[in-house]
Amino acid sequence: MPAPEIDRSASLIRKLQSLNDLSAEEVSALQALPLRKLAVRAGTTIVAEGQLVSECCVLVSGFACRHKVARDGKRQIVSFHVAGDMLDVQHLLFENADHNLQMITDGEVAFFPISLLRTLVRERPDVAMALWRDCLVDASIFREWVLNAARRDAKMRIAHMLCEFATRCEVAGLGSPETLWLPMTQEHIGDATGLTSVHVNRTLRSLREDGALEGAGRFFKVGDWNQLRYAAGFNPAYLHLAA
Amino acid sequence: MPAPEIDRSASLIRKLQSLNDLSAEEVSALQALPLRKLAVRAGTTIVAEGQLVSECCVLVSGFACRHKVARDGKRQIVSFHVAGDMLDVQHLLFENADHNLQMITDGEVAFFPISLLRTLVRERPDVAMALWRDCLVDASIFREWVLNAARRDAKMRIAHMLCEFATRCEVAGLGSPETLWLPMTQEHIGDATGLTSVHVNRTLRSLREDGALEGAGRFFKVGDWNQLRYAAGFNPAYLHLAA
DNA sequence: CGTCAAATTGACAAGGCTCAAGTGCCGTGG
DNA sequence: CCACGGCACTTGAGCCTTGTCAATTTGACG
């Protein structure tokens, strides 16, 4: 059913479809939005905290993260993003960014003017509901991250974060958990879980020894998916995936 | 301007007004929703995780919190709520609750059928935008909580959480930070910050010694607001308060 | 073959947890 | 009016997970 050739925002539209059934009319309204597609390198900051934002963006390929910086300079990643994710719907209603948006790997990002999206959303309640639902899923994920950072020990915390990431990749059509090479560095993992990269290193080794992960050095992936889910106590209910 | 006698959902309407200007027509549409108002005791669980939800609710008076429970039974509070807060807009779009909603103090809660709210939202984009914005503010707060739990030490973490709470109380018209008696127990504070109540106790003493807090035993309040904000490194930008 | 970022390892320090005991306050029932 | 029970707050001692500091190794790439 999804037309593989339309591309451009294909992965976004597929995602919105799954959030709230959209009519053909609505899909074409979305496709009619003028896009500006950009190739971006790993490490590029797409939106910076405090910045006045006039475009919304969608991740077309590659991986990205959102992060905030504490007073003492420590960085906290608050979410990871995969192809098809809306990266800043919140700017539909906020003028200024309250966090940074940065690429983890090379990839492509599509931009479109917020003003047009605002109009579209007023005219087409179904599109609005799909985007709104996306925001609510985001919020649910943040709640789980609060729990993760505050209540789980290092091993469980890292395992949980990786389970979520692998699940979301699979949903985005990037491959099953056991085939996917994870794109983040140990420093990213530390920044996302509130641990130091030194301790992440020790903990990853331990997860490898359990068989939950495999691979060495820079490149690793899920070894035994059941093992990893068990180590994490992972229950995907909070992702509110389509039934 | 706000009619003090209409009451019922007055604080909610005031809040939505501040999120997105609503016309008189929209306000009366909101006021026409059939409410079921209930007095609830401290400790009452209003919505439980996994539950199928058919009503939305607004906190009319008192204080509430949302929390999740980890596999090992540890509780994590993910947000506090004050009079006027919508307690579960997310159930407009999710069938099942992904966390618990519980009263911290005695108070009153107003319920109304989700189906009616769903209709209202489709017919009145401005009401939808106001509620949507509320969700986005929530999400921004969760992001800050992730940072708080993961990156700040006990003293800063508790101070930050209290700064946010006091600010939101003030915005809700409950009084200025230095006059408000804080409603939560040390266990609540621990559950919200990822600390044990023992360590919360020691840290609160230290904040009292700094003058940031005052009061003894069960009842305490902000002593020196500037001191507390300094101890927390508090910057309210993430609350996206009306300009 | 040099360079650089990321991963790895070891020794030591420390913030926060656990366990355990004790205190003060308040509502309830006799 | 007082005794009792329960809940929240307090405090102390010792331990453990994780952080800090400082080398060193590895692999990718020009």
Describe it.
The structure is a homodimer of 243-residue chains. Chain A has 243 residues and is an alpha+beta fold. Helix content of chain A is 42%, strand content 18%. Chain A has helices spanning 10-19, 24-31, 114-123, 125-151, 154-171, 186-193, 197-209, 225-232, and strands at 36-40, 45-47, 55-61, 64-69, 75-81, 100-103, 107-113, 213-214, 221-222. In chain A, the strands form 3 sheets. Chain A has a 4-stranded antiparallel beta sheet with strand order 2-6-4-5. In chain A, strands 1-7-3 form a 3-stranded antiparallel beta sheet. In chain A, strand 8 and strand 9 form a beta hairpin. The two termini of chain A are 18 Å apart. Mean pLDDT of chain A is 91; it is low at 1-8. At the A-B interface, helix 4 of A face helix 4 of B. Chain A binds a DNA duplex (30 and 30 nucleotides) through residues 153-154, 185-187, 195-199, 201-202, 204-205, 216-218.
